[in-house]
Amino acid sequence: MNTPELSITVEPAERAAFPFTALVGQPQLQRALQLAAIDPGIGGVLISGPRGTAKSTAARALAALLPGAPFVTLPLAASLEQLVGTLNVEDVLRDGRVRLAPGLLARAHGGVLYVDEVNLLPDALVDALLDAAASGVNTVERDGISRQHAARFVLVGTMNPEEGELRPQLLDRFGLSLVLANPVDAAQRTAILRARLGFDEDPAALARQHAKEQAALSAALVAARAALPSLAWSDEVLNHAAACAIEAGVDGMRADLVMLRAARALAALQGRGEVTPADVDAVAELALAHRRPEGSAAQPPGTSGQAPQTPQAPERPQERPPAASVPQGDWGALLAQPEGTAKVQAIAGWPPKKA
Q: What is the reported pLDDT for 146?
């Protein structure tokens, strides 16, 4: 008995991207992504926030805004070889030629590399990722053989703080960062819902509605990239960036460099021929927020170089509360008890220690 064969037609699915200009209530996120797109050497953008705050939507929208830019996602289960690529050593032994098997970094060249939950990635992958994002070059090494290829992409990493933090050494190597929050204004939430529902019902209609704005912004980004080499930093701008970094108490020089690159990208985006201290102020918090020591407050823009405030008289220390009111931690835990010490006697022929 012959069983009839089932014929199933599989249609390719194309996922439409939400228009970048249709994002509602996220001006800082849009600015950070645009600056990183203009100058990928900034080192990428780290977006921290709860679920449902348009982190991945914004990253996909940015890739759709850049002409011919690929959008590559790095899965959490990826290996180091899948990320950076590998070299086929067997080909060297057979015919003396080194062949490179490219990884995700090569595929992302000229586009956007998106890493969701970057705080859950192994440190080795994050190191390789940030190295390539900052330098624009990926190095593949195996068995003493090394090859390099261009890997210039916009790195967008997202994370939910509830699932853990990045180590400070890795956090510092992201160029810009910002923290998103759930909108609490009813009118803003309504606007977000209206845009999202309209996109889900008819993505093409929303795309047509924002086509003119999208085309203008895309052209502005391309023009800003081309204008970068012609913009220089004056001594005034350099001094202002250094003063901002000193006020923030950051370690190293990376914050200064990122501020200067981001300020130049902002000036290029706005079509100006010079970088000003106001540009540094406009991007300072994006570069300093994740590098500022824990517990220090953010400084308002334009306060660098001002006279310090008159210190307030120190508050009188509070008296120590009685032991009964001190939190005891876990139930049943006991307070620390003092213990006496005894003088060590001579052991196994060693002479006693002199006083």
A: 84
303 — alpha (psi -120 to 50), left (phi > 0) or beta?
alpha
Of the options 3.40.50.300, 3.40.50.1370, 3.10.620.30, 3.40.1060.10, the CATH number for the domain spanning 20-181: 3.40.50.300
Cα–Cα distance measured from residue 293 to residue 65, given in angstroms and rounded to the nearest whole number: 35
Average pLDDT estimate for 215-231: 97
| Class for the domain spanning 229-288 | mainly alpha
* Amino acid present at 237: V
Neighbours of 102 (CB within 10 A): 15
Which has the closest alpha carbon to 237: 288, 276, 284?
276
Catalytic positions, please? 254
Region 52-66: mean pLDDT is 93
| Rounded Cα gap, residues 188 and 192, in angstroms | 6
**Residue 309 burial (10 A CB sphere; 0-12, 13-18, 19+):** exposed
**pTM > 0.70: yes or no:** yes
What residues are paired with 88 via a beta bridge? 99
User: Is 24:210 a contact under the CB 8 Å cutoff?
Assistant: no
Nearest to 151 by CA among 70, 67, 260: 70
* Contact assessment for residue 214 and residue 21, using Cβ atoms and an 8 Å cutoff: yes
CB of 69 within 8 A of CB of 59? no
**Residues with Cβ within 8 Å of residue 223, at least 6 apart in sequence:** 268, 271
Strands 45-48 and 99-101: unpaired
Per-residue model confidence (pLDDT) at position 354: 53
